[in-house]
Amino acid sequence: MFAGGAVPNIKGVYCLLLVLSYVLIYAEGYVINDYFDLNIDQINKPDKVVVEKIISRRWVIFWHVILSVFGVALGFYIDWKTDVRFLGLLNMGIVGLLFVYSISLKKKLLVGNILVSVLTAWAILVITFCETSNLLHLDVSGSYTQKITRISFLYTAFAFVISLIREVVKDMEDVDGDRRYGCNTMPIAWGIQSTKVFVSVWLVVLIAMLLVVQFYVLILNWWWSAAYSLVLIIVPLIYIFKLLVSAKTSKDYHHLSTLIKMVMFAGILSMLFFRIYLR
Asked: Does domain 148-279 match CATH 3.30.160?
């Protein structure tokens, strides 16, 4: 329950359905991307190709349709049963964007990277969107609602920046296949060294953002949260920065991508501290 006695728009089973809808939608994004990336993946990661080896292209399209329909339908169902509005239409738009990304946008300089980063960040911001009516009309004095809103935007910014970093690192990993099939990714258009500079700048920005946040966290005496962030997020990011400088092979960039995913996961888990401290 929000400050002032208001009931959240999303709670209980509807919260689970919201999570499920985005799991389905992003899963279909991976499915359709693998479908269109078959030729590229056969060069970049031949041992991990699923399409045609494990599942036929026809079944890939079938599962794409099923996952999309159920993901969008859950959005409309949540609209119908709660005070949330336009979630179904937004989910439909995301499905469309993921499809266009797979067939075209991913081959364009930075456009595909930014789109994936925005959609990754949206997976966090969607909770705030669903509670918009409560956030606009409750708790005008500040405290709880404003704290939750600020925290959601902090995590949204974190998700966007670290996703952008990982997407560009993946482009460096996949440069051989991308070049052969006409993709205009950053490493191809700018070169590896310039791309490293781009990623390095964003790593520095992200580390600086996190350090500033920890300053405020320490003011609140959230010592465990600060220690967690330092050990499992900030220090690993500094280590990633160091590895990036010396990275040369596809294997090096794959290792970096894996480390970045681990930091992303650690960052999301840190939400538990806010649940503890703000209850």
From this structure: no
